């Protein structure tokens, strides 16, 4: 079995958050969707577990962060191309996301990234990278003194 990641996200309204992430491109796994939880798959190995604040608090005694004013984590999803980054950004904005809460990443011909803030304030970065071109560019940079 491949190693998987399950990102647990507290959300104010599970149904709204589910519709948002479906619009962005995730697929709901209805076997794990209830009134207080929605399992949203981006791939066979990347899943967001959207949980009501009450359900999220079943797993921790810590307070749920106010994601409108505090960032606990920046989530990053890869895309196959610059156009893929833009296509997903368009879907997110159309679904109600705030565009580019973090700086765009413009690194020539080898890396491009943008980000969006979801309905609950979680920041999701989208990035495309040509790893070989990035390694070549970075190895050509002079060493820091």
TrEMBL record:
GO molecular function ontology, one term from the record: lyase activity
Keywords: Lyase
Name this polypeptide is given: Lactoylglutathione lyase
PANTHER family (UniProt xref): BLR2408 PROTEIN, BLR2520 PROTEIN
Residues in Glyoxalase/fosfomycin resistance/dioxygenase domain copies: 7-126
